[in-house]
UniProtKB/TrEMBL annotation:
Protein name: Uncharacterized protein
Localisation: Membrane
UniProt keyword Ubl conjugation present: no
Topology class, membrane: Multi-pass membrane protein
Top-level taxon in the UniProt lineage: Eukaryota
UniProt family annotation: Belongs to the peroxisomal membrane protein PXMP2/4 family.
Any one cellular-component term (Gene Ontology): membrane
Amino acid sequence: MTAILRAWTAVAAERPLTTLTVTNGALGGLGDILAQTIESHNERHRFRWDYRRTLRFVAWGSLCAPLFHKWYLLLNRAFPLPVQSSGKASFIYAVSKRVATDQLVYAPLGIAGFFVAMNFMEGQDWASAKRRLGEFYLPTLKANYAVWPAVQAVNFGFVPVLYRVPFSSVVSIFWNAFMSWANAQSASKVELPVEMPHTTVEAAQEKQLQLRLDEKQRNELVR
C-alpha cells in the first residue's frame, strides 16, 4: 500500500491535473458500483451492472477533479493557515472560513450541477432537470450539511493539497453508498408507487390504471 501511495505521489507531483482526473473518475465509478450493489441487495434481486450509469459517474468525477483542485488552491490563497506560533484559535478560524466558503458557495452549485449533468447525460430534457432539482436538490443539500462540513474541516486543516481531491473522493464512495441505501429504505416505506422525476408514464397506461381503480371501487361498493 505504501509503495502504491509513493508511486501515485510521484506521478501526481509531475502531472497533478491528469493524475487527479483519472483518480477521481475511477473513484466515482467505484462509488457507483458500490451503490448499485447495495441497491440490488435492498431490492433482493440479482445484481445487474448498469455500466452506462457507472460511466456517467466516471465522467462526472473526471470533470470535477480539475475544478476541485483549482477551488482548493483558491481557498488556500484566500484563507492561508497561520503559522504554528499563532495558536489554535487562529488555525481554527482560518479552517472555519475555508469550510464556510466551500459549503456556502461550492456545495450548492456543485449539487445543482450534479443533478443537471446527470439528467442530460441520461438523455433527458430541461423540464426533467427542473423536476429532478425540485424534488432532490434541497434534501441532498441538507444531507450534505450533515456530513461534509466535518469532512472538509479535516481536509482543509490537515490533508496536504495534493491529496485533498482524492481524500474527498474516497469519502464520496461511502457518501454515495449511504445516499443509495437511505433512498432505498425510504422508498420501501411508501405504500403507493412513486413516479420519479426521470421516469414517465404513458397516457394509455395512466388510463388503464384509472380504469382498474374505478373497477375496484365499484366492486367494494357492491360488497
